């Protein structure tokens, strides 16, 4: 007999939203997370980057204060203090979330889980079984074939949010949301920044008018970018990196940030072994987030829907309500509000 009504693998936006709603509806819940409760959004994504953007905004405000009749001077960035501010924002939200989960009597399990059957997740030598299993293992920062992340000169957003110094120059590979976000942060912090984007515009998934408006703003700020040209290779030396493009151009900088999107975290977690239908690492689901196996569900960045925290929340809540028999309406993905700034 199953111990839980649902066992959730992954404690990010989709996983904890599902756990909290299910507990609210009177279901017995186990929530398994290998790192920290809150997932990418809280610890490596939305929240820390917005904190860095805010610090950058204040730096720019100090530089331009005289334009507003305010006497102030910008001296430098104190990255120890910037990171302390950012970590403080994360810590406050993390503690609040931990308190919420504890108050709902959710069984919270710290450890790396693996799906071993349609009803069971193993964590080390322990097994957690449920009438339903929700897969919510999120995503990771992708790279390109042959482009190895060393975490020092060639980095992803995972390392970029923890940097203890301001690089003199940075090349950002990828002009999507994440690439543009860090380009803006580093320019505000005082770095020379150049974005390389293979598509014809920055933030190419937005309306063209929005992309052009961002490009104009970036030009005005002195953020350089190369559009419609593909990355070819990178050479590393003691002094930094040299990036070669397919059109023959090359650019040198201290750092290369690889921001070419995020992929689903699904490898080695037992999904395919149990028979879960997948495509290019994504778990395939219907309009109620059900997989092809009865009682196994999937939400968040693991499924091929919009990679947004509030989409993960909505999917987690949908699954909890469906399991509880409330028959919620499927999510209208065309109606999901989103903002890039």
From TrEMBL:
Alphabetically ordered keywords of this record: Disulfide bond, FAD, Flavoprotein, NAD, Oxidoreductase, Redox-active center
Pfam families: Pyr_redox_2
Parts forming coiled coils: none
Swiss-Prot/TrEMBL cofactor(s): FAD
Single GO term (MF): dihydrolipoyl dehydrogenase (NADH) activity
GO biological process entries: 2-oxoglutarate metabolic process
UniProt family annotation: Belongs to the class-I pyridine nucleotide-disulfide oxidoreductase family.
Name of the featured protein: Dihydrolipoamide dehydrogenase
């Amino acid at each position: 007999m199953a111990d839980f009504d649902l066992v959730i693998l992954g404690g990010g936006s989709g996983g904890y939203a599902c756990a909290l709603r299910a507990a609210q509806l009177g279901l017995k819940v186990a929530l398994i997370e290998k790192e920290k409760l809150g997932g990418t959004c809280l610890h490596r994504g939305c929240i820390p980057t917005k904190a860095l953007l805010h610090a950058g905004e204040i730096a720019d405000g100090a530089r331009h204060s005289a334009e507003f009749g305010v006497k102030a001077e910008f001296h430098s960035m104190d990255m120890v203090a910037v990171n302390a501010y950012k970590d403080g924002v994360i810590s406050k939200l993390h503690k609040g979330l931990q308190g919420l989960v504890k108050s709902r009597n959710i069984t919270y399990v710290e450890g790396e889980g693996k799906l071993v059957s349609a009803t069971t997740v193993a964590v080390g030598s322990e097994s957690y079984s449920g009438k339903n299993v929700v897969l919510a293992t999120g995503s990771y920062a992708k790279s390109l074939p042959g482009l190895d992340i060393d975490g020092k000169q060639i980095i992803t957003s995972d390392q970029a949010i923890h940097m203890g110094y301001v690089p003199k120059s940075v090349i950002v590979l990828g002009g999507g949301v994440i690439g543009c976000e860090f380009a803006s942060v580093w320019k505000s912090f005082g770095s020379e920044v150049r974005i390389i984007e293979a598509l014809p515009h920055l933030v190419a998934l937005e309306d063209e008018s929005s992309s052009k408006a961002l490009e104009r703003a970036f030009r005005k700020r002195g953020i350089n970018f190369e559009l419609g040209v593909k990355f070819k290779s990178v050479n590393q030396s003691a002094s930094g990196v040299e990036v070669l493009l397919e059109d023959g151009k090359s650019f040198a900088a201290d750092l290369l940030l690889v921001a070419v999107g995020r992929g689903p975290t699904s490898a080695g977690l037992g999904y395919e072994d149990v028979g879960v239908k997948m495509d290019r690492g994504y778990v395939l689901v219907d309009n109620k987030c059900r997989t092809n196996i009865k009682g196994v569900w999937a939400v968040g960045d693991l499924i091929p829907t919009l990679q947004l925290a509030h989409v993960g929340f909505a999917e987690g809540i949908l699954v909890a309500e469906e399991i509880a028999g409330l028959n919620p309406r499927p999510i209208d993905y065309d109606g999901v509000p989103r903002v890039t700034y």
